[in-house]
Every structure is written in C-alpha cells, then in structure tokens.
C-alpha cells in the first residue's frame, strides 16, 4: 500500500461568529464560538480519509501528515491527535518537546458581509529540510505521493528537490495560494500537479483562470496537470503537454445557502487527490473535477468537515458535456445517482443516459 504524505502547518482554530466586524478598541459579543483543528493539509487529509473510508472498494492508499506540532505530552497535541481518524498516520509529525502551545488561528466571521478575518499565532520552530528528508527516506519506496502546502518556499523548494533527486518516482503536488508569498513560482516549476488559487492568480496579474493556466504552462515543465479555482465560477484545469483546457462550474445545492467556507479549498484538493490516486485511469478529468467540486460544494453548506462523503458519494455521477470552442470547454452539469438513474424516466434522464454510460467507460 502506497502512502500519500501531506506536508504543511497544523492549527487549532477558534472561530467567533459575530453580527458585524468590531471597531477597533471596542467590545462585541459573539453569537457563537467553534473550536476545531485546522490547517490546509490537515483539513485535506481529514476529508480524504473520509472518502477512503466511505469507498473501501477503491485502490487502498494510506494517509500521513508531516507537520510541526507541540510537545507530545501537551493538551494541544492530544486535541490535534484526537481530531484525526485512527487510520491517518501522525507518526511522521515533528514534535517540539520544548513548546506546549500549538499553532493557533483566531477567525472572526462577520455575518453582515460574510467575511473572515484571521489572526494566526505560531511559536513553533519550522521544519528543516533535514527533518523532512529523514521522514521521506524512512518511508522509502512506500511513498507514492507528496502534497505540499505552499509555505516557507525556500525550505519547501529544497524538500521537493530532495524528492526529485532521491525519490524520483514520487508524485508531487503543491498548493499555490498566497499572492504576497515570494518563491511559490519556483515550487510550481518542480511539481507534477499544481493547485492555483484565485487570489494568487489575480495578485500575479491574471484576469481569468485560463489566462493563469496558459501563462503558467510555460513555467511548469514538470507538470502534467494545472488547476485554478475561481470561487463561485468553479475550477479550470489544463492538461499537459496536450494543452487541453477543461472548465467545470461550481456545485451548488438547491435550497442550501453557504454557512461555512473555511476549508472549502482544502476539501476541493481532497476530492482531486482522491480522483488522482484512486481513480487515475477509470475516471476522466471532467469527472474528477466534477466530483471534487461537489465535495467542496457540499462542504460549504455545513459547519466543519465531518460527514461530507455521506452526502457527496462517488456513486453520484457528475457528467460534464464539453463541446470544443477554441480550446475552452463549455460544460453543462448533470448530477444523477447511479443506483436510480436506470429506473428513472423523463426527457432529461433519457438524454443523459448515453452520456453517462460513455462517461463510465
């Protein structure tokens, strides 16, 4: 069984829901408080583990986290450990035994304008390249995929270079998110799969996701797949070297308003990693994108990350019909449950059946 190792920061999040953002030097009562474990890679692993647990028939992979954590005897460490499923391996995390405070985020979520203001604290010493090398060298040939949060770019770059030199068969994906973080471009240049955020794209002068992907294609010679999420507009992907563009609209569940967008991007990445590792050959790209979008779309209409696969199952077929128009796919999405579609009637179902059968092949 191959291991997917996720490398990034792990936080304890405290979320305060307020009617409006407070003025400076003022006092405001919160309507509710939520405390939970956060961090991009930990969130991704939590959702990905649920997808694996809900679908035991897929090719098995094991999940592991490489993050810097406080002392293994601290309450913060125990809280973080208890937040993960037992199957997720935390033995590759690096504990700073001289520090008992976990990295923490304090999130003020304003109901008035649907905004999030985040204040981070992290007093833990960052992971070194030598510590990372010890982890991946210990995993050896058991390591199949390594996903990086794009942070501390100089260290992360050296970590990816170590993989390329000593473990060339390992697939590498990286998340490029923060527009003001220098050095992320160098990480993308060495990765097999790159996830670009809307904020990074716009911060670097791109006006559309396709512009971002076309521009980045010349700078990412190792990559086979580039993806750019664009909020409510969905996601666009570019396959290399074919230069094939596929666009997929965001999933919106009728009658359900967004209630919690924290972790939506991490959830999308989990859905894509599930498709790329467990359905590499039997799902075409549009189906992977549709599934990942649906997982993320169902996440935002609920608090937290628990129970998402119960409503977004791989048994739901998301078919995207994509006629070619100057290389840009224009997609129409049909969500139909495999277990019931053959027994349904009506013109939309009848028209969908041939496409659904074709998508299965």
Description:
- With 361 residues, this protein is an alpha/beta fold.
- The chain contains 11 helices and 18 strands.
- It has an 8-stranded mixed β-sheet, sandwiched between helices. The protein has a 4-stranded mixed β-sheet with strand order 3-2-7-8.
- α4 (153-166) links the parallel β9 (143-149) and β10 (171-176).
- The two termini are 26 Å apart.
- Mean pLDDT is 86; it is low at 314-361.
- Unreliable spans are 314-361
Roughly how many Å apart are the termini? 26 Å
**What is the oligomeric state here?**
single chain
Order of helices and strands: EEEHEEHEEEHEHEHEHHEEEHHEEEEHH
Mean pLDDT: 86
How do the strands of the widest beta sheet line up side by side? 4-1-9-10-11-12-13-14
Number of strands: 18
Q: Into which percentage range does the β-strand content fall? A: 25-35%
Q: What count of helical segments does DSSP give?
A: 11
What's the main sheet like? 8 strands, mixed
How large, in whole angstroms, is the Cα Rg? 21 Å
Features:
361 residues, alpha/beta, eight-stranded mixed β-sheet, four-stranded mixed β-sheet, 11 helices, disordered C terminus
List the helices and strands and how they pair.
Elements (H helix, E strand, L loop, with lengths): L1 E6 L3 E8 L13 E7 L1 H15 L6 E6 L1 E3 L4 H8 L11 E3 L7 E7 L4 E7 L7 H11 L3 E7 L3 H14 L4 E6 L7 H7 L2 E4 L1 H6 L5 H9 L7 E5 L5 E5 L4 E5 L15 H15 L6 H15 L16 E6 L2 E2 L2 E2 L2 E6 H4 L5 H14 L1
Helix pairs in contact: 1-8, 3-4, 4-5, 8-9
